Amino acid sequence: MYDYFLGGNTNYEVDRSAGDEVIRHFPAVRTVARVNRAFVHRSARFLAGTLGARQFLDVGTGIPTAPNLHEVAQEAAPECRVTYADNDPLVLVYADNLLRGTAEGATAYVEADVRDPDRLLEIVRSQGCVDLDRPVALSLNAVLHFVPGDEAYAIVRTLVSALAAGSYLTLSHCTPDFDPAGWAAITDIYTKAGTPLEVRSRDDVLAFFDGLELVDPGLVVAHRWRPEPASGPSLISDKDASLYAAVGFKP
Asked: How far, in Å, CA of 36 to CA of 45, rounded?
């Protein structure tokens, strides 16, 4: 459905049908997808180009949609090493598109589920593309709203605790704050389609960053996070974005 909202062609009739139902209740959902995608690019570029991150772990990768995170990071710093992780077998089919990086850097894909963070970390360590004993920029973009309840917070604690000091957490998360009725309908559609969804308030999203130092401008609606010219939707309302985003630093 995310690929469909982005205008991609790697989706199926069932995705398009459910996606059209979401659009009927919340026409701006395509904007939400584009806002998220633009934040992924801006945050990766900022981490690699300004903050000096050289290792990235992107969890919940989804179907590759160019430019991918490694392309953005390696454009800023060709030596960046990037590991993608996802539990969707379809992503594995398209993983070749994730493995074309610079000669100076490295890219890898592992099949792992964010809901089993200990196993995910074990697989990442054994694969060896990124070294968890050195700082890593962990990306959890548009994934935790698919983990209902307190389990999502436990996942983040497990993953962040495994990272070396000097690491970063990048996170985006859908919110009902600006249109509760619209997002209640969307949650129902996703759940009936077999994908439980829990969108969270600003305070609830902020709690994912407990123990971390927020990088300026902190937790904001995603299109307001370090906007750049031509880097995605910008002249839109917070309601149309409906997505919080932030980068946190692990001291």
From this structure: 14
pLDDT in tens, 158-178: 999 999 999 999 999 999 999
Residue 103 is given by DSSP the state: S
Topology classification of domain 27-249: Rossmann fold (3.40.50)
- pLDDT tens digits for range 93-112: 777 766 788 899 999 999 99
Distance CA 173, CA 156 (A): 13
CA 130 to chain CA centroid, nearest Å: 18
Extended beta strands in 2-98, E state: 55-59, 81-86
Q: Are 223 and 232 in contact (CB under 8 A)?
A: yes
Cα torsion 107, 110, 115, 117: sign: negative
| SS3 state of residue 121 | helix
**pTM given for the model:** 0.91
* Distance between CA atoms of residues 72 and 46, nearest Å: 10
Task: Give the residue from 210, 162, 206 showing the smallest Cα distance to 59.
Answer: 162
For 139-159, the DSSP string reads EEES-GGGS-TTHHHHHHHHH
DSSP code of residue 235? S
* Cβ pair 22, 53 in contact under 8 A: no
Backbone angles phi, psi at 81, to 5 degrees: -115, 130
What does the alpha-carbon distance between residue 31 and residue 53 come to, in Å, rounded to a whole number?
28
Amino acid present at 185:
A
